[in-house]
Amino acid sequence: RKQPEFSRGVGAYLNSAASDDRAIAARARKGQVQTWLARIERTYGVPGDILVAIWSVESGFGQVQGDYDAVRSLATLAADGRRREWAESQLFAALRIISTNEAQRSQLRGSWAGAMGQTQFEPDTYLTTAVDIDGDGKRDIWSSAPDALGSAANLLKKAGWKAGGRPGRGRAFVA
What we know:
With 175 residues, this protein is mainly alpha-helical. The chain contains nine helices and two strands. The C terminus is likely disordered.
């Protein structure tokens, strides 16, 4: 109920999300993953700049992924009742991640609402959209920046991103 994107004015939120310091950090981080970004863009058609911006806002380039136990958070949200159906479906998805050995429960750390990893995926989105870009055989959105960025690109592509489209006002998505 008090998330900054809802509790602050649009101008204040955008000023903090798109600060000069964040842009400087984004340029540095982009340089560190440039090879991966080029491969991801060829595969999914999403520009590296868009992915780095998402990575920045969602987790400060993987540095702030959240410290909440996703299973516990989702169980609590389901019990709270406000978004019970959604929370229960996410809880079951998180349990599937664990039961299929895609990740250990200790890895499922994230936001108070159960979003996980460097690009803050909900558990069901992880199951349907996460990809293994770095080729190690695991879809690791927690400790692999290439997997997190590739997964975000795959999510955007599945949502209708058109290669070569310009972001903003829906221009990069299929109408």
